[in-house]
Amino acid sequence: MNKIISLIKTDFNTTFGLSAIAYSFKAKKNRWQIILFSLAMLSILPSYILIIKSLNGMYDIYSQIGQKSMFLLSGFLGSQIMIFVFGLLYVMSKYYFSNDLTHLVPLPIKPSHIIGAKFGTLMLSEYLTSLPIILPFIIIYGVKGGEGPIYWLYSILLVAFLPVIPLVLASIVIMIFMKYTNIGARKDLIRIISAVLFIVVMVYVQLKIQTIAQKALMEGDNFLINLITDSNLLVKKLGIGFPPSMWGALSLSNNSNVIGIINLTSFIGVAIISFLIMIFLSEKLFFDGLIGNIEVSASKGKNRKKLSLSDSVRQTKPYLALAKKEVTMLFKTPIYLMNAVGGVIILPLIFAMSNISGGDQSMDQLIKLLGINQGIIALVGIGFIVALGMLNSIGSTTFSREGKCFWIQRTLPIKVEDQIIGRVLSSLAVQVLGVIALLVSLTFIVKLEITTMMLITLLGLLGSIPMTQLGMIIDILRPLLDWDNPQKAMKQNLNVLIGMGIGTIYAGALVLLVMKILDKVDINLIYGILTLVFVISSIVLFSVLKKLIIKQFEVLE
Amino acid sequence: MLKIENISKSYSKGAIKAVDNISLDIKPGEIFGFLGPNGAGKTTTIKMIVGLLKPDSGKITVGTVDAWENPLEAKSMISYVPDNPEIYDRLKGIEYLNFIADMYGIPKDKREEKMNYFIELFNIKDAIGDIIASYSHGMKQKLVLTSALLNNPKLFILDEPLVGLDPKSAFNLKEIMRNMCNEGKTVFFSTHVLEVAEKLCDRIAIINKGKIIAMGTMEELRAHAEERESLENIFLELTE
Predict the structure, then answer these.
(1) Residue B38 pLDDT
(2) What is the mean predicted confidence (pLDDT) over B182-193?
(3) A181-185, A477-481, A499-503, B224-228, range with the lowest pLDDT
(4) What pLDDT does residue A8 have?
(5) Distance (Å) from the C-alpha of residue B58 to the closest C-alpha of chain A?
(6) Is the pTM value of this prediction over 0.90?
(7) What contacts B173, CB < 8 A, 6 or more positions away?
(8) How far does the CA of residue B220 sit from the closest CA of chain A (Å)?
(9) Of B108, B126, B129, the CB nearest to A313
(10) B98/A316 CB distance under 8 A
(11) Chain B: residue nearest A408 by CA?
């Protein structure tokens, strides 16, 4: 037992950098960092408040049709699905790609101890994902419904156990996945392809289930009568896809009677049992996927080609060489590939697939709206690509990703202009994939004219430049260099969040501007204005970035 | 070639003085050994020369260039090999070498000639098509050495270069250092291995607690110490 406690303590400490935080507090960090961070947080706040407001409206609607419990189900389902999806990525990197494994595996501890400790830390991270989603639901329901103390007591228990089941599922899926893909020299490639396939299939199946469930629900003869007599009908019908969410919703909505306690017991009981099953399975699965996973195979034997130097040696311009190195690293590091590259491809795909499978009805209206005017399609497309320019997090992690190799950049005679251009180019290279994915997806939904495609491509890429530069400014001000797992440089990097906040302000202002003048002026003038804004902000940000990089390259330690 | 004037560096707002008012003047064609116990300030000094740590005060001149006023010019004369070869492990060896050569702007035929020579010498020719993550610690170090030698640096700075190298490569590296000096280049390195310093260096400085406590040729150092036999004795006596 002592071993597990010690493992958990060490893992907490290294994951959340408690000692490092305490240390940096003593060293007293610069004030603008806190200001920047609060600014980013503030910029996210309005949209969060907006979401909570609309949740309020959603409660009223469910309340009117006598299906209040459905409101709770949405909360439970939403947060548990998010935990599962994020869990897949977290579990993968935490269980299989973190550097502490090379120290842990040789120690005389059981696989289940390692998994148990890592699961504990992940639970804590997942609260950061789940609390902002589930709390508004529980609070709105509790306050508006005037619920009593038992409701709140149940809520605390449910929220505490909420991440367990989805995280257990993610752990088991990943452990099986890693065990059976731990083969051959090309396992990185095999894994990436299967992961992308898995995500695509999952999204498709999910949307399909929703469509079927919705149809089945509406088709029943006595649907309306049943709806009136059974206030938990919707929950029971729709929650069947993921029962734990249903138990959570039912236990809260029935907190005054025995159904509540039964559902609460199921929720917690199944969470504990599933955790134990995972621990049991980890003994059988974990090391099989792990051992030999860390090693990277060198090409050996007869497959090894004699490398001819004169063919592989070539001179490249410094900024191009830097861009090439960045792109290679992005594509060859699984975590970066999934987040940065995968992101820009998958987002447009989800956009398209939800349409093909007929899951989302609001899409029809959107298409009609889009179908009317190629100009609006172009504007929406440009906005989408510009937003991806920040969402791909390439700019906001460009220096952080250097990590312990940052010394290379700082000791080489690289011109600061080359630094900026090279890194922006690497982001644009990935953005091109996003543009392609978006254009292909759009052609499934609506007829695209050549000029529209050109506009989306050119203005989208142009607009991605200031976005990337904004990210780079944040990242050079506070690069996260001390990491042992690439996951930290990208997924657990606050710079990404700050970048999205500031990017939202910048893009939001542009969207507002465009909407204000959309009816009043010629659309070509809008393209002109956008071009002007993008070019000017690129130039201004370039010179800001130049000064900052020179200064930060000197003072960073 | 390398002139350090009164540089100091402290951490935690001056509470810990890592380097305390150090001055050195190293001439072209000299191999200079930088000795000292763990935590004496060797790596801090080296990091200030190569541009990784800004000195609190003092001046560093490379050739005729102020290293902190015109960093780009200074850096194009320097090659640096850190004590720990942390490099981009997702690149192939050859990709890394090409990248470094691009940053120094080395033309194709020249880099090819240098690469050929050094990868042969360090016996990593068969590995440069593989990704760096598959290399052993020593192989990574040899790759870093190769990359540092591509631009034919006027000032070669190495932090603990011999730790982790196999005997043959260590021998080769020492030869390379010697040859560079014969060509009028300057080598500055830190080490724990007193024997190497004794045999290889033209001059030696011993640093302890951030201050230089002795500097000179082996003979000069011997003259200062009471036990005059080996550098080991001098070192132990001085750093006590």
Answers:
(1) 86
(2) 91
(3) B224-228
(4) 81
(5) 15
(6) no
(7) B145, B161, B162, B165
(8) 34
(9) B108
(10) yes
(11) B87
